[in-house]
Sequence to fold (514 residues):
Amino acid sequence: MTDTDDTPMTPPSDEAPSDVARGSGVALWKQIAERIEADISEGRLKPGARLPTEAELAERFGVNRHTLRRALATLTDQGLVEATPGRGTFVKEPPLRYPISPRTRFSEIVSGEGRAPGGRVIASQVEAASSDIAAALRVAPGTQVLRLDMLREADNVPLTIGTHWYIADRCRDLDLIAAATGSVTRALEALGLGDYRRLETRITARLADEEERSLLALPPGRAVMVVESINGDPQRRPIQFTRARFSADRVQLIVKN
Amino acid sequence: MTDTDDTPMTPPSDEAPSDVARGSGVALWKQIAERIEADISEGRLKPGARLPTEAELAERFGVNRHTLRRALATLTDQGLVEATPGRGTFVKEPPLRYPISPRTRFSEIVSGEGRAPGGRVIASQVEAASSDIAAALRVAPGTQVLRLDMLREADNVPLTIGTHWYIADRCRDLDLIAAATGSVTRALEALGLGDYRRLETRITARLADEEERSLLALPPGRAVMVVESINGDPQRRPIQFTRARFSADRVQLIVKN
DNA sequence: AAACATTTGTGCGTATGTATC
DNA sequence: TGATACATACGCACAAATGTT
Fold:
């Protein structure tokens, strides 16, 4: 009861707060969560839109703020909304759809989604292949490889940190060309290796560490998807091994079968 | 400096602590992290093995325990080791390789990795399809669908919570059969729908919420991969939509191209 | 720079209905 | 019929983050 009524079991004289069904066997917070979820998935609440304040929503549904917060909590867990103290609660932008296919190209995928691809080289150096890198590239451990760390973004929003390893003597000056053009794809084309294809992709996930949060502009407690991929030439000989960390908030990987 | 020496800038009189290079431009913790990482990836430290205590490792490398902990922290972030207070630091078991292919079957994959598949039905009910479920199954929103929540495990270790939606009138009593046999695949076979194939898979990730941590026996701060998949009959008509949450710690998704 | 309003986040106490032993 | 535990819901108060004046 919200009002201080001395006849306790009277149903709330329905001067239209909203139609949550009390005593229907379904928890109030669950009904509210489902209503808001439907508002989002059916487009009445658009991505980026701000929800009314918790106090306002609580009043509108005729429940306590705690009850309403319980509903919002499930939506947050499902990744549908995001709340910031002092600002409000917002409907999350849907993640960019990132298809994993034999011909996976970052720039093409981002352009295809109507966004502007970008990126920059964070670091590059020649190093000796550790055993896992060597295994993926099918070379002897210790072989010289070019390591290229890149940050890639769409519409200036960082999406992924990628560490790429190339067999050094097949890729002279790749790092310089990539830094100049901002595109690994174009750099490889310049070297006559434009026709690479993806051989295998391995996906796992974990919490973003501090460096990743900083580079990807993520608040604490966010996850990254760790995507390892082996790319090869038309003869399926490995050229490149990549370990990329995608912001799980902003990217959804798609596999078509 | 570790020792309380009154001649401060003296290099540590190299009575062989271990060969970390002081003043080499590379941070000590980074060198240590890379050494241990190599020990793991090259098999000198096997999965499940316990590392020496932090104090012991610190002494062995000739650094302060804080420095050593900084190294271990990066390995923990990378998911290579896991520390438990009072027990020690352990090399993590490699994740189960879970291939995503047109014919993706949980039981077969787990068996193929030499582990015993298992599972149980958490809940099942008939409900009205929400708009996103309806879109995936290509039916009208509100159509009756059977919802089946399952927990699946390998060698009694929980791997994934899957929520499966089936078009209700194509799958009578599926829930009962699945509960009895413990296998959705076998239950579908019993209904003559054994030949389903995966049409599309969508992958994202986030922090595990409380319910997921409880069901998957995960400590706080772990990530789950959220894998949505659409399965269809041989004519590629959708039969089933699944939203599964995999323990990112224990599973690595593999896509072969 | 400082004060303030707005909004979410958190804690405590209380009451009630509903399962379970 | 308790007795107990648990989830739900409400009320009040304050902390923390943000934006504005």
In short: The longest helix of chain B spans residues 28-41.
